[in-house]
Amino acid sequence: MLQQPHTKYRAFAPIGLKDRTWPDAVLTRAPIWLSTDLRDGNQALVEPMDIARKMRMFEQLVAIGFKEIEVGFPSASQVEFDFVRKLIEEDRIPDDVTIQVLTQAREPLIARTFESLQGAPRAIVHLYNAVAPIMRTVVLGMDEDEIVALATSHAAMFNDLAARQRHTCWTFQYSPEMFSGTDLAFSKRVVDAVTAVWNASPERKCIINLPSTVEHSTPNIFADMIEWMHRHLARRDGIVLSVHPHNDRGTGTAAGEFALMAGADRIEGCLFGNGERTGNLDLVNVALNLYTQGVWPGLDFSNIDEVRATVEHCNQIAVHPRHPYAGDLVYTSFSGSHQDAIKKAFAARREGDVWDMPYLPIDPKDVGRSYEAVIRVNSQSGKGGMAYLLESEYGIEMPRRLQIEFMQVVQGVMDVAGTELSAANIYALFEREYGLATVQALSNRVLEAQADASVLLRGQLHWEGALVDMQGQGNGPIDAFIQALQEATGHRVRVIDYHQHAIGAGADAKAAAYLELRVDEAQTLFGVGLDADVISAALKAIVSGLERATAQGRQGAQCTVVPA
Ligand code: KIV
Ligand code: ZN
């Protein structure tokens, strides 16, 4: 790279529109959307779509709700021509959808384009020619008058050819290609000349589409250019003002949104930003940005994964995992502090509340995503994420100190494995650590109330490979069990804290008990018990804790330190 890039590159000159209004504009309604996936998007593919893939894309676009769809460049190839014919001849175009086709300003291509549209009920025919100085002087070798003549003479052909196909309801569209790299006064001159030829009026509007064929400037400058055209174009009330941003600087979405604020009525782009080089403006992005501002975009992405799968199939290009709204990872937080905030905000949220979630600008459910992916656990995660997964997937509501204790186990595994742990992985660890599947309930349990208000507990317990008879008396079942346990095993257990809740409802409901125990005055740790019976769950939790303590004792652990 150059140390002095100004010797090679020049800054884009600002427009200097001093009385611009767009910065204060608020978008309160959806624009007219035009998908050019089947034209500009398709032109950019390594392997352009065949007819089957084009049809699949067309049907997907219709299902999303697009009413204007650029279906191809019929004079460019036989496939393009045949696809347009197929749509018309097989009556595939819904009554509320208008197809659009592109043609260069060249006589035989325009004739072939109109031929492809024979029998269409409605159609937008899209004419373009380059207007930027670099194209005019170097590529076309024309002066400004010649460019105006090129545009108007071919625009006039539209009038003639359309008059010969009267059964079709025609809309004409003109794009001054490379508008963003062209002097505004000249763009206006060419566009005004074209709209004069087409006799644009409120009754017979044409579409003027202003492309940033190459994105040259910051999006505010593009917005100034659009506002300038919006204010200065002749026959403005006979024009649907459209924009067609590309994304060379990575600001296509911003440019499109600013352009709408600056007076554009219509916007062209592709799903997930496919298109030449860095792509066209991403229509999903703009539509869902509007949605998150409370504006119905008129495009339905309730099942964004299905849309993504179709587009990936048709384009043979994967959507990036970080792609706004659609990527695999965009609703996922790995960071512990983010997870904690999300978990708390979900708990505080009530049905009907306005959406205000940390780290989640949209409710994943609105685009057909589950909350499953919201929190995932890797080495960056904290206890909050792990606890969230166990709660949301398995109904386990761990008390905070248990979360801290168990997170050490999770972290230990993560440090060795180095990979992400799924909810199922974490539950398997939890089950193993607290003996959920192995700790047995006290069998043949008898609980008798005594005259002095205490209870007498009898039963049999599997302890260290043998079935041991037990008996104890205390001020409740837990107290009695602890007495019995001390006599049978020699271990003294003290309950420090006790939490319990139900998992599920009805006949399948289970009780979960989490007991923080002090064992032999040497170790403080948790035991966990799950059982259909509340008392059994608590007694199992005590055995779970005692087994963990003795196992840790065997491994030489003195005590499990649980920070407050
Ligand atoms: O980017 C562009 O300039 C185009 C025109 C044909 C509208 O795609
Ligand atoms: Zn384009």
TrEMBL record:
GO cellular component: cytoplasm
Matching InterPro entries: 2-isopropylmalate_synth_dimer, AIPM/Hcit_synth_CS, Aldolase_TIM, IPM_Synthase, LeuA-like_post-cat, LeuA_allosteric_dom_sf, LeuA_N_DRE-TIM, PYR_CT
First and last residue of the signal peptide: none
Native organism taxonomy: Bacteria, Pseudomonadati, Pseudomonadota, Betaproteobacteria, Burkholderiales
The family this protein is said to belong to: Belongs to the alpha-IPM synthase/homocitrate synthase family. LeuA type 2 subfamily.
Role this protein plays: Catalyzes the condensation of the acetyl group of acetyl-CoA with 3-methyl-2-oxobutanoate (2-ketoisovalerate) to form 3-carboxy-3-hydroxy-4-methylpentanoate (2-isopropylmalate).
PROSITE patterns: AIPM_HOMOCIT_SYNTH_1, AIPM_HOMOCIT_SYNTH_2, PYR_CT
Compartment(s) of residence: Cytoplasm
Domain Pyruvate carboxyltransferase: 31-305
GO MF term (any one): acetyl-CoA C-acetyltransferase activity
Gene: leuA
Principal location listed in the UniProt entry: cytoplasm
Binding site for Mg(2+): 40, 244, 246, 280
Protein name, as recorded: 2-isopropylmalate synthase
